[in-house]
Automatic annotation (TrEMBL):
PROSITE patterns: ZF_UBP (PS50271). This is UBP-type domain-containing protein. Residues 84-115 are annotated as: Disordered. SUPFAM superfamilies: RING/U-box. The lineage of its organism: Bacteria, Bacillati, Actinomycetota, Actinomycetes, Propionibacteriales. Pfam families: zf-UBP (PF02148). It comes from Nocardioides aromaticivorans. Residues 1-101 form the UBP-type domain.
């Protein structure tokens, strides 16, 4: 790693779902949370891949899984897992939220649309 990664353990997650997908009425497979600013974006399996787009736009290189019961981090710059600290709650989307989700916006052919 070239620089110490940005992590803000006090910033909350931006919401229960992908910020951009929610704004556009879209859907996602899994969610990732930026460790620097709390932005929640969809994973690279999702059609829109907003978590990676957020990294490319901001340079915020560390994400944490935003799936309940998962606490792993990924470092986009190093292309490897990272041992990060506990972030501010919530650390995952609501337990009852469907995967993929949100259920009412997931198309019937969703498996044909993922990466």
């Amino acid at each position: 790693m070239t620089d110490a990664p940005q992590i803000d353990v006090d910033v909350p997650a931006s919401g229960p779902g992908c910020a951009e997908c929610d704004a556009a009425g879209g859907w996602w497979v899994h969610l990732r949370r930026c460790a620097a600013c709390g932005h929640v974006g969809c994973c690279d399996t999702s059609p829109a891949q907003h978590a990676t787009a957020h990294f490319k736009e901001t340079g915020h290189r560390l994400i944490q899984s935003y799936e309940p019961s998962e606490d792993w981090f990924w470092d986009y710059e190093a292309q490897d897992y990272y041992n990060g600290p506990e972030l501010a709650a919530p650390t995952g989307h609501p337990e009852g939220q469907s995967v993929p989700g949100p259920a009412e916006r997931v198309p019937a052919n969703w498996q044909d649309l993922i990466h």
